Amino acid sequence: DVLICNHLLEHVADDRRALGEFYRILRPGGWGILLSPVDRSRAATFEDDSITDPEERTRIFGQYDHRRIYGRDYGGRLREAGFEVREIDYAARFSAEERRRYALPDDWIYVVRRPL
Hints:
It contains four helices and six strands. By secondary structure, the chain is α+β, with helices and mostly antiparallel strands. The strands form two sheets. It has a four-stranded mixed sheet, covered by helices on one side. Strands 3-4 form a two-stranded antiparallel ribbon. The relative contact order is 0.24.
């Protein structure tokens, strides 16, 4: 009925295969939240499995065990798997002072639904 995936896909070798499996197991009409770090300044996701040195991975991907940096195409990847997607910039609803006070990150929320 519900799928929660919190900061996992950036670690998975074949994220498209994982998304396909998420779609397969979610019942029609089911919904989920699929969170990953997304660099909104990038149009497209960057991935390069030839980078294996942990220090270099940390420098490029932000963490030694990340395999990619998602760009603004993240929602599109979710749609490619078959999901309906809502991309929510929830922090934009708050003032700069509220964002600072509540330590709100710039992350967006990605809500997916498997069509009936």
